[in-house]
Specification:
heterodimer, A: alpha/beta, 8-stranded mixed sheet, 30 strands, 22% strand, B: alpha/beta, 6-stranded mixed sheet, 4-stranded parallel sheet, 6 helices
């Protein structure tokens, strides 16, 4: 038996005669392999060394990859320019940069040399099957060294090279083999005039037309031949329409789903069959079956659909090895399998290289021009090239994209084609590739007045004059008083503190009166609102007292030492008809303002999660008098008086901030808290995991005994389409182009104004209270934060998860 | 490896079974050509009565010559191109003979336009595809094994524009059989007579095999 098997093709196929060598101790191939192995080992070692050294300089692997790509493109463009002796033009193109990212990046092309044409692309066609395979790195779908996808496009002639006639500036032309870019320079043999009346988006399908046309021709159709197509992508549908034009009868489209059955129907196919409908497929008995799926196992379906003596045209580039080609069935049906890859066009005998492609392209465009062929549905939806990353992610998910093209008219004309500079060095920074690296600067349009990232004067529109009485004149009162003084429409009129020295000091600094008791302050007619800057456990009684005195209440965070107390405060405010607001000034930092605006504009897509870390080092002095020591008291170390440690004392800001920016409400919390440093009643470390009502996840880790830190933090939010780093150094990353912004790169928020965010809080509060408008931070906001904190503590106590919504409901009863 | 070669008990009285040497590979083996005592033929789905009174080896030789002629007919219009026939069984020999290719001849040193595979072996088929010129033709005329037939259609067929004709090595028509002359039969039997499969071993010299009243048992390769 082994003898029968040993006959291999090699015995019947010409093999070049072996070159005699004097020394045959080591076969040639092994020696070559040895040399290559050494070279590879050397290259790998050098690469490791370079990466390690650059790593020490802070260059990440992704940045390195980006730099390599940038340099490669830079060299490539200049080599082309030198070859054609023409200067460079600059435009934008889509690139698959690294790690599954697709983005719009600057590209350079030379002005047209002899026999070349530069085209300002208006639309570039997407071939969903092939580009999905390339994007997913499926087998048999390699993308070129430059990582530039694309099939063909159509646009206006931008410049014509020497020795060419018949093309004028502004002519609408189609270009085969064009990458997805705003600007391409191509040989004239790849450029075709588009007949009048044909849209650029339709003409952009020219390369798919060449492929499909070639398939139809290779099928050697006879009038009346029954044709089925396996696969409902643009190439398959286009092939079906072309066979119809050739006089054959399109009978069916066989597909994995019916998502494109409309396309099949409009192509004249009587029916759309699902691949699993094998009996119906077998009954088709087609003369010709066009396999256009790219699925290596779809050949089996094609064999079933063909009649005895029929032909199967392979038009789709299958992504991998067909595991089991049904040869026996093919032999039984005496089928002929025809490979019809577009590259085989070049193998046909022809007078001039490229003739066959030109013939197919011209035929396709002529059919469009005459109206015999309709492809508007295949051109599909117009995609903003800036959102290529988003598009390819959708494409990669499967059946979510039927047909599409990139619409380059959305790019600013001045940027779509501008003069390049030969001597400009390549970007060797990898700008925008890493969250903590150098971000891109935002586009000027975003920062201009009314632009998305324009902060403007935070005090603009401040009206009225709010008179505030301060109760409690310790550490935080001083900060708040300074902020009130900085607000154009608020002023401190009275102060009170059991330690009279503190009240007098504050009053002297801000020209206010000093009262002997809280009741006296609350009785003053010139006090519109009371600001409570007292230990947490005093928030509730004083707030209720102030409400009963018909004074608006502003309470320093947190709202209270417990959820019950906070609920009591809110109820008292409701009863009295006064406003209760919690001072959460971090909402008004420029980073937070822009972050919320970006989220509202869709930068994150669907909100999916948040993460907050906050570390600081509270010394012994802190526990006896706060950070400044202005007011000596040990209430901060008392669970009863403070309500807790780092979580309630410090993180209440962040809990509110994330809630404010994301708009997400927390549904479930699991937490562990610890007093790790010294035995106290309150925690100095907390780890909280939680779930939002929309399914997003969150985490919060805080510690106040981390040596060597003053206030180190990281607050970030992410969603289906982007990520926001609110702190430190606000920056954002989005796949969605907002007001023409770049995508898939970390971008800074721009140069941010410097102002006192507490002052903004008080100015806006004053405007609202004096004009009868709504305040930014309501009692409900304070309660939500309080419920979160209460939930975290409850979870730690019980070891089970807690539901803030339920806790709040119970507290309100 | 075992063959599905028919045992004598499976054959009708006086019947003899014949096989190309390549039909023995694989777990399934192939349907053997069976010649009844009166010269009637049963091959694949086709059965036919005696041809010109030929019986035994002569009838079998007529059948394999007819199969070879049918396969050669698929590419005869391309006979001015560079053609090679892959395999060293009797079907390959008949096809070569029909196309006027010398026994064991290989294609011209440059380029290969058409190949006829009679082995049915997936790896051999892949090698042949790689050797064919773009737009070339490959005829699959071997019995393939029952196990899966993996094939990189993109690389081997699609990208290179090949045309693959699937043609089982079976009798497709009586007319082919009738066209086989006695001289051709005599030449084949003189040059390459079928050898009895009695030792359960194959040697390099056997183009085809015969099993009549021979011992049944597993086939093992010759060392």
């Amino acid at each position: 038996m082994g003898d029968a098997r040993e006959s291999s093709a090699a015995r019947y196929i010409p093999i070049p005669p072996a070159v005699p060598t004097a020394k045959r101790a080591i076969p040639e191939r092994y020696r070559l392999a040895g040399v290559l192995g050494l070279l590879n080992r050397f290259a790998a070692r050098a690469q490791t060394q370079i990466a390690a050294r650059l790593g020490r300089l802070g260059v990440t692997p992704r940045q390195l990859e980006e730099i390599q790509r940038g340099v490669l493109w830079w060299i490539f463009a200049r080599v082309q320019a030198l070859q054609s002796r023409r200067p460079l033009l600059r435009g934008w193109g889509i690139a698959w940069t690294s790690g599954g990212y697709a983005e719009l990046v600057p590209v350079e092309v030379p002005r047209p040399g002899k026999g070349q044409i530069t085209v300002r692309i208006e639309a570039s066609a997407v071939s969903p099957g092939t580009e999905r395979a390339q994007y997913l790195h499926l087998p048999n779908a390699a993308v070129g060294l430059l990582g530039r996808p694309g099939y063909s496009g159509a646009g206006r002639v931008h410049a014509v090279g020497r020795g060419l006639s018949g093309f004028a500036m502004g002519d609408l032309v189609a270009v085969t083999g064009a990458a997805h870019a705003s600007l391409v320079t191509a040989q004239a043999s790849a450029v075709f005039r588009v007949p009048p009346g044909v849209r650029a988006a339709d003409a952009a399908l020219v390369q798919l037309g060449v492929i499909a046309g070639q398939g139809a021709r290779f099928a050697q159709l006879r009038p009346g031949d029954r044709v089925a197509v396996v696969g409902s992508g643009p190439v398959g549908i286009l092939a079906l329409r072309l066979v119809g034009l050739a006089g054959a009868e399109p009978v069916a489209v066989i597909s994995r789903s019916r998502i494109r059955s409309g396309l099949a129907h409009s192509s004249g196919a009587a029916q759309t069959l699902l691949a699993e409908e094998s009996e119906a497929i077998a009954n088709l008995r087609c003369d010709v079956v066009v396999e256009a799926t790219g699925n290596p196992d779809a050949i089996g379906t094609a064999v079933v659909a063909a009649r005895v003596g029929g032909r199967i045209v392979l038009l789709g580039s299958s992504r991998g090895v067909s595991a089991d080609v049904p040869i026996v069935a093919m032999q039984a049906k005496q089928l002929t399998l025809v490979g019809a890859h577009v590259d085989s066009l070049d193998a046909e005998p022809q007078r001039i290289p490229g003739d066959a492609r030109r013939r197919e392209a011209a035929a396709f465009l002529a059919a469009l021009g005459s109206g015999a062929l309709e492809v508007a549905d295949l051109a599909g939806e117009a995609v903003d090239p800036r959102e290529a990353g988003l598009f390819y992610r959708d494409l990669g998910r499967g059946d979510r994209v039927a047909t599409a093209h990139f619409d380059w008219s959305l790019i600013d004309p001045r940027e779509g084609a501008s003069n390049g500079h030969f001597l400009v060095p390549p970007d060797i920074v990898g700008r925008g590739t890493e969250p903590l690296g150098r971000p891109l600067r935002p586009r000027a349009a975003l920062r201009r007045r009314a632009g998305l990232l324009h902060v403007g004067d935070p005090f603009a529109g401040a009206t009225g004059q709010l008179r505030i009485g301060v109760v409690g004149c310790g550490d935080i009162a001083l900060s708040n008083a300074s902020a009130i003084a900085a607000a154009p429409n608020a002023t401190i009129v009275a102060t009170y503190d059991p330690v009279r020295r503190l009240a007098e000091d504050l009053a002297a600094r801000f020209d206010a009166a000093v009262t002997r008791t809280a009741e006296e302050l609350l009785s003053l007619d010139n006090v519109d609102a009371v600001l409570l800057c007292v230990p947490h456990h005093l928030h509730a009684p004083l707030a209720i007292q102030a409400a009963e005195a018909r004074k608006h209440v502003v309470v320093e965070k947190p709202m209270a030492e417990s959820l019950d107390s906070a609920a009591g405060m809110a109820a008292a405010a409701d009863r009295a008809g006064i406003v209760l607001s919690v001072c959460f000034p971090q909402r008004f930092t420029p980073e937070a303002v822009l972050a919320r605006r970006l989220v509202e504009a869709g930068a994150l897509g669907r909100f999916q999660g948040s993460s907050t870390t906050h570390y600081l080092d509270k010394t012994q002095a802190y526990w006896l008098g706060g950070f400044s020591g202005r007011s000596r008291s040990d209430w901060r170390a008392s669970k009863e008086r403070a309500g807790g440690g780092v979580l309630i004392m410090n993180l209440s800001h962040h809990i509110d901030l994330v809630r404010h920016i994301s708009g997400g409400e927390v549904e479930r919390i699991v937490a562990i808290t610890r007093d790790t440093d010294e035995p106290r009643e309150v925690e100095d470390a907390a780890s909280v995991a939680f779930a939002y009502t929309n399914g997003a996840v969150g985490s919060l880790v805080a510690a106040s005994a981390v040596r060597g830190t003053t206030a180190a933090e990281d607050v970030r939010l992410w969603g289906s389409e982007g990520q926001l780093l609110v702190s430190p150094r606000g920056r954002w990353f989005s796949l969605r182009s907002l007001e023409g912004s770049r995508t898939a790169r970390w971008q800074s928020l721009g140069r941010l104004p410097v102002y006192n965010s507490r002052a903004v809080y008080f100015a806006r509060l004053a405007t609202a209270l004096t004009s009868g408008g709504a305040v930014d931070v309501t009692a409900d906001d304070g309660l939500a934060v309080q419920a979160f904190i209460e939930g975290a503590y409850a979870s730690h106590e019980t070891g089970a998860d807690a539901r803030p919504g339920l806790l709040l409901e119970q507290a309100r009863k | 490896m075992t063959s599905q070669a028919p045992s004598p008990d499976d054959l009708a009285a006086g019947a003899v079974a014949y096989a190309d040497r390549h039909w023995l590979h694989g777990e399934r083996g192939a349907d053997w050509l069976q010649v009844a005592e009166d010269g009637s033929l049963a091959f694949g789905a086709t059965s036919t009565g005696p041809v010109s009174g030929r019986t035994g080896d002569a009838a079998a030789a007529s059948a394999v010559l007819a199969v070879g002629a049918d396969i050669a007919g698929l590419v005869r219009e391309r006979s001015d191109e560079r053609i090679t026939v892959i395999g060293d069984g009797v079907i390959a020999a008949c096809v070569r003979s029909d196309l006027g290719l010398a026994p064991g001849s290989v294609a011209a040193p440059r380029g290969l336009h058409t190949a006829i595979d009679t082995t049915g072996d997936p790896s051999t088929v892949a090698e042949v595809c790689a050797a064919l010129e773009p737009l070339g033709v490959l005829v699959l005329a071997g019995f393939v094994p029952a196990r899966p037939f993996p094939w990189d259609l993109y690389r081997h067929v699609h990208k290179r524009g090949l045309r693959v004709i699937a043609a089982a090595p079976i009798l497709h028509s009586r007319s082919s059989l009738d066209a086989i002359t006695g001289d051709a039969v005599a030449r084949l039997l003189a040059d390459s007579p079928p050898l009895d499969l009695i030792e359960e071993r194959l040697t390099r010299s056997e183009l085809w095999l015969r099993r009549g009243h021979a011992r049944a048992g597993p086939l093992t390769p010759a060392k």
